Here is the input.
Amino acid sequence: MSATKVPIQLIRKLKEQIVSVASPGVNIHKELADLLKSSQESVYRKFRGETAFNISELYTISKHYGINLGFLLNTTDEKKVNFKPLFNLGSGIQDYLEDILTTLNILSKYDQFRLTMTCADAPLFRIFGYPNLTKFKVFYWNNILNSQQDDNEMLDMQKTIPMSSVCRLHDLFLNLNIVEVWSKNTLTGMLNQIEYYYDCGLIKDADMELLSMDMKKLIDDLFDPTDKRNSNLYLHELSFNNNTFFVETKQKSVLSLGVNGINSIMSEDKDILSEHRMWFRKVMAKSYRVSGQSKKISYALHREFDDQLNRSFVPRLTTRYLAV
Here is the structure.
């Protein structure tokens, strides 16, 4: 059987995949030598790229370890990402939230779990602590994602929404090691969304009042030193283009990059992770912990968020609500 010459970088990937599925503590060179009816020295030479695996050997390795060797046929530096379409899914946002829950529950069981997020928009973990904002977000997501939904449908605060995933996500948020990095524009996106639907006549004044109170409560809670959610809340001087979540554990890391404001692209690719790890370090170096600031700086930032709320809501409310 003819030998198949494989670039050394792909041989390294092959070895990494074998190690990842082999039994702990196993000498893979000896195991492969037995499997291929060869010598350990021959296996060493093949992993160093001095000699080549033949087709039969690659097939045997693939079958024994359950490894898909398709990457050996492609010498380009392609990156693997995962993406789940959301538009027009009959299950709506519920499955999306359940997927997030499942992923976080699995990752949180690994050692030294840490989730760092840059927040172009208020993260859903925060929003889910406020029932009226939660109902608006579900309304907004359904309006955007479901082409069958009537564009003239009003926000109905009396409408029941599936709260199981919402509550579990919020509870999980309270018990995980999470670092939030906000900018001064993090609330702008949601304020603009609320403004749009109100100006289209799809939010009643009474419901606008409820949303304004929840927004005010969210802002006040950000600066409450007794709120455990704020222990790792940071502020970055520049704005972010999307919500990016970076999970690091002792065993594995995962990046979730926000797209279209709702969905995300996920990757465990080492190069992508390495690039974003360096980017997150730069972000953190230019950020400061909100709870660690002087009263003067904290108060000024608090007022800035209040002013954003007032600029958005005050001109639109019949019974005007003024943040104080």
About this structure: The mean pLDDT is 83.
